[in-house]
Amino acid sequence: MASSMGARNSVGQLQFTLEVPFPSQREASIAVQSLIPDCEPRKGGITKTLSVSANILSVKWTAEEARILRVSVGSFLDHLALVMETMDAFGRIVQQ
């Protein structure tokens, strides 16, 4: 089950963090490698950072406006769902 947290930082920017567990570190790494190329189209107002620790994919957004944050998170979740569906379609990864 994924966990999330949202708040404003000391400069008044909105922050949102999402953590998504995967069955293995390898699957989390594959997911992050598939999602990293999708940089934010807007050049200012929002940043997104992706990382993997063990089997957890973590994403942190910082935005100036709630609307920009909402659009970015929604788009990311659509891409994440597609990556997860693709991984499911090809079956469980066998460790070598």
Give the arrangement of secondary structure elements.
Layout: E1 3-8, E2 14-21, H1 25-35, E3 46-53, E4 56-63, H2 66-90
Antiparallel strand pairs: 1-2, 2-4, 3-4
Helix pairs in contact: 1-2
Largest sheet: 4 strands, antiparallel
Q: What's the helix-strand series? A: EEHEEH
* Poorly predicted sequence stretches spanning 5 or more consecutive residues: none
Q: Helical element count?
A: 2
Kindly report the average pLDDT value.
86
Structural class: alpha+beta
Strand order of the largest sheet: 1-2-4-3
**What general outline do the C-alpha atoms trace?**
elongated
Family: Belongs to the CTAG/PCC1 family.
Protein name: L antigen family member 3
Main location: cytoplasm
Keywords: Cytoplasm, Nucleus, tRNA processing
Overview of the molecule:
By secondary structure, the chain is α+β, with helices and mostly antiparallel strands. Helix content is 38%, strand content 31%. The chain is built from two helices and four strands, in the order ββαββα. The protein has helices at 25-35, 66-90, and strands at 3-8, 14-21, 46-53, 56-63. Strands 1-2-4-3 form a four-stranded antiparallel β-sheet. Strand 1 and strand 2 (14-21) form a beta hairpin. Helix 1 (25-35) packs across helix 2. The radius of gyration is 14 Å and the shape is elongated. The two termini are 27 Å apart. The mean pLDDT is 86. Belongs to the CTAG/PCC1 family. It is found in: Cytoplasm; Nucleus.
